[in-house]
Amino acid sequence: MARTARQILAALSRSTNVHVRSTAELAAHVDSAAAAIDKKRQENGQEAVRRKTDLRPVALAEHGRAINLTPWQVLHAVARGYVLAGQGMGRGLAEHWLSLKFCEALDSNRAGAMDLTAKGRSSESWYKGMQARELAVGFGLAVAEHVVQQRYPDHIVSVVDTNTVLRAGWPLSVSQRNKVSRPRPDYLIEAWKPGEPSKVIFVACRGNHQKPSKRTGRTRSTTIRQLVKGAELTEGMQIGPWNTTPCLMLSTELMGQGGVVVNVLQSPGEALLPLRTPGAPGNADEEIRDRSGIPYPNAIRIPARDGRRARTVDGFQVGEDDLAWFGQLLARTAAAGLTAFSGGGKYAARYLTARQGREHYAVPAFAATSSIDDADIEVGDTKFVGTDHVFRMGAARIEAFSGVESGLYELIKDGRIEEYRRAVYDLRSKRQKNHENGKWKAPISFQGDGTVMALSVLPIRRRRLL
Question: Which of 428, 259, 404 is nearest to 344 (CA)?
Answer without folding.
Answer: 404
